[in-house]
Amino acid sequence: MNDRTGRQLQALSKGSIAYGAIGLVMAVVLLVVVFVVGGRLDALAVRLGERLGTVGATLERTAATLDRAGATSLGFGVTVEQAVPTLAQVDTSLGEVGGTLREAEAEMAAVNILGQRPLAALSERLGRVATNVDTLRTQMGTLGVNLGANKANLVELGTSLTDLASQIRRADEVVASGEIESSLGEVVGVVRLSLALLAIWFAVPAAGALAFGLWLRRQLAADDVTPATSPVTPATPPG
Question: Which residues are registered as beta bridge partners of 113?
Answer without folding.
Answer: 116
